Amino acid sequence: MATLKDVAKLAGVSYNTVSLVINNVNKVAPETKEKVLRAIKELNYKPNKIAKALVSGRADSIAFISTRFSSVVGMNILREIEEGVYLAGLLEKYDLIPFSTRGDIKLKEQIIDSIISSRKADVIIMLGMKLSDEYLKKIREKKISLILIDEYIEGVHSVKSDNFNGAYNAAMHLLNQGRKKLVYLGEKQMPEKGLSIYEKVNGFKKAISDFDREIKVSYFSVENNFINDGYTAGRNIINEVKDVDAIFCAAGDNTAIGVMKAVKEAGIKIPDDIAIIGYDDVPVASAISPALTTVKQPFEKIGNEAFAIALEEIQGKIKQVKNLVFETEFIKRESA
Predict the structure, then answer these.
(1) Second label for 237, Cα 20 to 30 Å away, from 91, 274, 291, 304?
(2) Buried b (16+ CB within 10 A) or exposed e, 149-175
(3) Residues of the chain with CATH 1.10.260.40
(4) Whole-structure pTM value
(5) In terms of C-beta density within 10 A (0-12 exposed, 13-18 middle, 19 or more buried), how is residue 273 classed?
(6) What is the CA radius of gyration of the chain?
């Protein structure tokens, strides 16, 4: 594998001159630059991106940090950002580097420290996690741009869904159907979870308080939003809440699908006996039976806008902090 010194030797220039050409510094005569570029092509030399970033202060990379890529939100947002890079024709120029913290705060901090120390990225996009003042300061000192999804810090770019109204509308749909004994199934509140957990439960509670009728509500939670978690929660709800007639699965469609499985196994009819509403609108939501009524998150808009802000930051075109909020959409199907 060719080295920078090999390029310098073939081009008949110094090591530093080759470095200036690679980092596009306008201090090299055109004819000298042409010799270096010919040598790079002839030797098929590939610059070390980390070394180049440390010299130039630019990595031409976007870091995407999520608690879990297996989550519905994580998968969908990452896919849309990746699609944005591809559609912009920038796959060869910009790298998209994903990192998973698995909800571990120390691992998150190690990842950020690694990005900062090696200048692995020009932009960090963080999904659904909090950031301490210490690490916000570290990122800003290194002039690395930051974009938050499903979180908010004053003076930092953010993109999110209006989850308060999403949950409010779901609850109101159940109440307007005459449901009187509701269960709210959300994600367990943990230090690393984003704003959506709190916005959803607050939106749900606001609908209950706005409705002029006495309603009984029970609250359950899951640590992860997989089908098995929903199935276990569904069995617990059936065993613990007598005569429940509606379940809002704010933790997501996967948990709703698990709940539906538990409800069916118990011989309870959906939606006649229990209405079930999910959240996110995953593709399988419309394919199961009964088709799942849910709240659609605008993953495409969130991913596209997060990438657009990242690209503007890399290109130095950003003029002001952007805080974008997109409306959710209530999708009426058969389960409620």
Answers:
(1) 291
(2) bbbebeebbbbbbbbbbbbbbbbbbbb
(3) 4-47
(4) 0.80
(5) middle
(6) 25
The single residue listed with the structure tokens 């999804």 is 149
Give me the percent of the chain exceeding a pLDDT of 70: 90
- Which CATH number, 3.40.50.970, 3.40.50.2300, 3.90.180.10, 1.10.101.10, labels domain 163-296? 3.40.50.2300
Round to whole Å and give the CA distance between 228 and 219: 18
Dist. CA 206–CA 168, nearest whole Å: 7
- DSSP state string for 269-336: -TTTT-EEE-SB--GGGGTSSSPPBEEE--HHHHHHHHHHHHHHHHTT---S--EEEE--EEE--S--
Angle in degrees, CA 115, 65, 76, rounded to 5:
145
Q: Is 206 exposed, middle or buried (0-12, 13-18, 19+ CB in 10 A)?
A: middle
In which residue are the tokens 């929903």 written?
A: 230
Q: Where do the H-state alpha helices sit in 119-162?
A: 133-141
Structural class in CATH, domain 61-161+300-326: alpha beta
Torsion sign (Cα): 296, 170, 66, 142: positive
Q: Tell me the per-residue pLDDT of 172-213, one tens digit each, with 9 for 90 and over.
A: 999 999 999 999 999 987 666 678 899 999 999 999 999 978
Nearest to 129 by CA among 151, 113, 101, 159: 151
Under 8 Å between Cβ of 117 and 183: no
Which tokens belong to 121? 């990225």
